[in-house]
Amino acid sequence: MRKTTALGVALALSVAAAGCGSSSDGSDKSTVTLWMYPVIGDQAKSQAFWAKVEKDFEAKNPAIDVTVDQQPWEGRQEKVTTALVSKKGFDLVVLGPDQIPQYAQQGTIEPVDDVVAADKAAYLPNSLSALTVDGKLYGVPIYQTITAPIYNKKLFAEAGVEKVPETLDELKAAAPKLAAKKVAVLDYPGKPEVSLNQSFYPILWANGGTVFAADGKSVAFNGPEGVASLQLLLDLKAAGGLPENAASKGNDIEGGALASGKSAMYHAATALQAVQLGTAIGEENVGIGLPLEGSKRVAFGIPGGVVLAKHAENKDAAKKLAGYLASPGVAAELAKESGFFPARTDVTVPGQSESAKEFAKSLEYAFPGDTHPQARQVMGLIAPHIQAALLGQEDAKTALDKAAEEADALLSSGG
Q: Using CB atoms within 10 A as the burial measure, which of 259, 266, 289, 395 is most buried?
């Protein structure tokens, strides 16, 4: 956190004052600027969608002038930190659960519990809890992501596996049968650049493990649950249940082992990846399951939250816009255009595909990961040791103990 703050201070002078939504334009209107990111992948559709949001909101709220400033993902953390430190750039910004705790601790963002109060029961509980820090809600959820297992039905059938694995034990039991057909049961992406939220962590969580201790002052991933989770991967590897290049492979579907029929299942896929797999092997051969169960079911999924800057001058107007973005009508259209999911249960997505409906079944198991100011840094320390274990250079306990030693040192130093 200290490094991030220092970087923000260093960059503060480079943020242009233009575009700040917390100043008046000389009229009686309140002005609000929202920094939005490309959650709608198609640029033209994204521009059209947010232009319509501006127009429709202003028509209903003529005393408020809205600017939706579409920002790139690249450099997001540094630019947001700089804007908050320099108190210019935006009034509202869309952030994820892993980014919010550090800004809440810094006191540069404000709680927004009152924005969702009237409709609180309509939101997915996991979406709200993911954006909550010390009992206060710091983000109004406007969309929710989710991951789930995708698999090649044909490969399991050809290997004589009548029931596609729904648990970690069943996954391990199926490995030798598929290996006999020269197919890896799990398309595990061990490349350190792949987020552990889509590789190791879902297995850790399913086994009841956590990344951090309850007080956040130390890590817990090297406990019995973590060691068992990594050992499962090593056992799968020994049984021919992982791709030969598991230690260095990414989680791309196109051109990967899953698309070429060399592996049978990816346990933490997105809805878009299911579409990509269908293009490669035929939609009829793609299955979508619930999160693999250990002691429980857990699926990585994060809400996108509209966050209010502490420096915003027109807070009431900003909160009104945040509430509008989270309203059922806007949420439904955003889900339709983005391919993500609503963060509310009272929203029907127009034209939602059958595949998306299957993914939606995992929303109740959504978990944003262990939110912590140093979550990303700790992930970067763990990944190389998991890779070392997959390469046979470290056993499961040694790998995680070494990573824990490094992570605890980071936490004790304040990051």
A: 266
